[in-house]
Design goal:
The structure is a single chain. With about 150 residues, the chain is mainly alpha-helical. The chain contains four helices and no strands. It is elongated and about 55 Å long.
C-alpha cells in the first residue's frame, strides 16, 4: 500500500490534540506541576493569578480540542472514500508523531524560548531544566518511534 492512501495529517492532528490533552489534564490539573503562565510572573499564589492561569489553561485546551476535531474530520472524510484497509501501524505511527511534535513544539517554545512555564515547578528551580529536557527527549522518542512505525507499514 502506498503511503498516500492513509490520511497522515489526520493521525498527526489527533496526536497533537492527545498530546495537548495529556499535558493539560495530567500536568496542569491532576499533578498541578504548572499552569500556562506560572513562570511568566503569574504563580498560583493569589486568586487573581490562579484565575488568569485557569483561563489560559482553558484556551490551551480549546486549541488542543481543535487539533483533535480537525484530525477526526480528516479521518472521517478519508474513511468515507473507497480505500484499502489501513494498517494499524500507520494510525499509531502518525498519532505518536503528532504527540511527539506537540511535546517538542510546546517544550521548545513555552519552556525554553518564552519561559512561560516549565514541566515541573514543584521541584527546586535548579531541577526544572532536567524535567524540561526529559519532556523534550520523551517527545523526540515518540516522534522517532511514530515515524519508524509509519515508515515500516
Amino acid at each position: 500500500m502506498d503511503r498516500s492512501s492513509f490520511p497522515t495529517a489526520a493521525g498527526i492532528l489527533l496526536g497533537l490534540g492527545l498530546g495537548g490533552f495529556f499535558d493539560g489534564i495530567v500536568l496542569h490539573q491532576i499533578l498541578q506541576w504548572h499552569h500556562m503562565a506560572t513562570s511568566a510572573g503569574y504563580p498560583p499564589d493569589s486568586v487573581e493569578n490562579l484565575q488568569l492561569n485557569t483561563l489560559l489553561d482553558g484556551l490551551f485546551h480549546t486549541a488542543t480540542y481543535l487539533f483533535l476535531l480537525g484530525g477526526l474530520v480528516l479521518l472521517w472524510r478519508a474513511a468515507r472514500k473507497p480505500h484499502a484497509l489501513w494498517p494499524a501501524r500507520a494510525f499509531l505511527g502518525t498519532v505518536l508523531m503528532g504527540f511527539g511534535l506537540f511535546n517538542l513544539c510546546e517544550g521548545v517554545v513555552n519552556h525554553q524560548i518564552l519561559g512561560i512555564h516549565h514541566v515541573n515547578e514543584t521541584v527546586p528551580r535548579s531541577q526544572w531544566i532536567w524535567w524540561d529536557m526529559a519532556f523534550l527527549i520523551w517527545g523526540a522518542a515518540m516522534l522517532f518511534g511514530g515515524w519508524t512505525l509509519w515508515r515500516k507499514r
